[in-house]
From TrEMBL:
This is 2-hydroxyhepta-2,4-diene-1,7-dioate isomerase. Residues 1-59 form the Rv2993c-like N-terminal domain. Keywords: Isomerase, Metal-binding. GO terms for biological process: carboxylic acid metabolic process. One of its GO terms (molecular function) is metal ion binding. It comes from the Bacteria. Residues 64-264 form the Fumarylacetoacetase-like C-terminal domain.
Amino acid sequence: MRIARFSIDGNVAFGAVEGEAPPGSTEGLVLDIIKGIPFADFELSGTKVPLSKVRLLPPVLPSKVVAIGRNYAEHVAELGNELPGPSEPPVAFLKPSTSVTGPGAAIEYPSFSQELHHEAELAVVIGRMCREVPRERVADVILGYTCANDVTARDVQKREKQWSRAKGFDTACPLGPWVETGIDLKRAADLTIQCTVNGEQRQLGRTTDMIRPIEDLIVHISEAMTLLPGDVVLTGTPAGVGPLGVGDEVAVTIEGIGTLTNKVIKRG
């Protein structure tokens, strides 16, 4: 099931996306409005609205986004970093809830940066409160998957010792267009990730190239902190990251999920 969060006539609701459409298009898609929330038992209301008549919002409002860096070998190499050794823990950092924005929303170019980069990523959406999750129970705590763009002020990341400002500014975490619940861990480990800027392909990779699989990431993160329903884990980006400028349209497409599109504007 594809679960979207949307706004219509000033009201916000969740809905199940039905129908098929070309990549990046909403033509022919409808939303069956959900009674309740997707993190508990819910029913479909049978009340349907065309997706073209609503405004899609971030599919979840996470209390936190936990992101993983340097999880694809070619991306590690392109930034001139050393490949983490087998005994080294994953590089984890937080993006605040205020960095989250939705499909079609603007990415605001921060005034303190002159080098903004895209980073296409598979995002894991947590479905229940959990802590110290054993590896064999990871699937039980996942609601589904969505597309993410770990937008990064690369120049700020290079000159500051921690990444909070470089990756945590407002609008630095586009998510969407919806959560796909019909993907299991085996399939999630073999999906194509693509990023285009103004229609030109920049990134093309597969989740099979992750250095550490999703199970290891959830175990590692949940050892330290409680994950809440709607929290998001970003799993790293493949090679090909590059610059974004004001006016650019950036699209992240993940096989079996959909396309997340955003336009870069000047922060004003």
